[in-house]
Amino acid sequence: MPRADLVVYNIGELVTFKGGPTARPRPGEAGILRGAAVAIRGSRVVEVGPSSLLRSRYTALEWLDAEGRLATPGLVDMHTHPLFAGSREDEFEAKLSGVSYGEILARGGGIYRTIKATRAASREELLGLLLERLYRMLWGGTTIVEAKTGYALKPRVEVEHLRIISEAARLTPQLVVPTLLAHVPPREGDREAYIEEFRGAIRAAARQGLARYFDVFCDRGAFTPVESRILLEEAWRAGLRLRMHADQLEYLGCSRLAAELRLDSVDHLEVMPPENARVLAEAGSTAGLLPTSIMAMMQAERPPIKAIREAGVPIALGSDYNPNNMTPLVQTALQVAPYILGLTPLEALAAATVNAAASLGLAGIAGRVVPGFRADLVVWDAENYRWLGYEWGYNMALHVVAAGRPALVDGRPVLRPPQR
Ligand SMILES: [Zn+2]
């Protein structure tokens, strides 16, 4: 009898996405199985099949009864800024009382305030905050998470922040994808000298194996397309993979540049001209959409979904967790995507699993429930995938398995941040 460490059985509906990343998720092609089970050995899936068959075939250390519920791949959050100290809840109130972001910045608020608070925090504090956030994400079904730096400002310290991210990654069962982010230039001083210094940080991060991705915020108030190109080309030469914050506030040509450089993921796109969807499709890029960021920014513009769909650009979803958008769960993005972006429930689910994994260069190892892939699984408090977004506003993850280990069972955390 084959042995397994864990068998999740009695799954009413299992969405496997076995066909891989997709620009047009359809129920007939999503690899949906009924009455299924998943056998896991170590951190990998070894078999997916009928529940009755796997129950009689395997001896297992642990059995998890899904009681006829929906199971999907673990959620993949492809865009987060989780390493920061301090908070800005007073600015949230001020914004809603009519104070503009420009005024908030002039008062020393906004991103530069977070940078100040983050610089004042000790390395231990930052690591503790990051771990707390990663585990909260885990209990909400996030089994893979991209984590950006960006609140150090000093390029040398951004590299130190990557070290904190890799330390946290060793203390969670999640797969953490570290990204070096060029977030904003300093308010004063020589921009050219700053870019030069950042190029040095890119090389150092790549040399030390601390980052998998490089990301740049290309927009009004951040880096220009010319500056972004210099940084992206440096990162490409250094061997890092590339992603970009583009076309969030004002169209400066950033998504065009992203397509020209064939970036893995181009994120935000709230003000992208619809005709650029075709260039993104030709470049093979993923559109990273961030519905909770649109809410936090109280923004009226929406990414051109119709054009993105018609061009065949795969859509991925991220939480964009940051001090101005305190939604740690990509599950929340999945739940509101139908309302904010008009995604169908299956489009939203593919965007938060298989397509998000592809946007992180993980298409061949994660984001689907198939043999050989990472054993990341969520059993939902729902009967079928249409409930995701139909019902929302609470954590609907009932059981979470990350790299073969149960992290949440019956809605209760069984894995917690290590006491340090
Ligand atoms: Zn972001």
Name the descriptors.
alpha/beta, 2 domains, eight-stranded parallel beta sheet, 420 residues, single chain, Urease, subunit C, domain 1, TIM Barrel, 36% helix, binds zinc ion, 24% strand, nine-stranded mixed beta sheet
User: What is the CATH topology assignment of the largest domain?
Assistant: TIM Barrel
Poorly predicted runs are none
Tally the helices: what do you get? 16
Q: What is the CATH H-level superfamily of the largest domain?
A: Metal-dependent hydrolases
Mean pLDDT: 97
Shape: globular
Structural class: alpha/beta
Query: Biggest sheet: strands, sense, closure?
Result: 9 strands, mixed
Strand content: 15-25%
Q: Compute the number of strand runs.
A: 17
Gyration radius (Cα, Å) is 21 Å
Give the bound compounds: zinc ion
CATH class of the largest domain: Alpha Beta
Helix content: 25-40%
Distance between the termini: 41 Å
CATH architecture of the largest domain: Alpha-Beta Barrel
- Domains, number: 2
Describe the structure.
It is built from 16 helices and 17 strands. The protein has 420 residues and is an alpha/beta fold. It has 2 domains: 3-73 and 367-413, Urease, subunit C, domain 1; 76-359, Alpha-Beta Barrel (TIM Barrel), CATH 3.20.20.140. The strands form 2 sheets. Strands 1, 2, 3, 4, 5, 14, 15, 16 and 17 form a 9-stranded mixed β-sheet that branches. An 8-stranded parallel β-sheet has the order 6-7-8-9-10-11-12-13. Helix 7 (191-207) links the parallel strand 8 and strand 9. It starts with a strand and ends in a 7-residue tail after the last strand. The structure holds zinc ion. Zinc ion binds at residues 79, 81, 245, 320. Zinc ion (ZN) is lined by residues 79, 81, 245, 320.
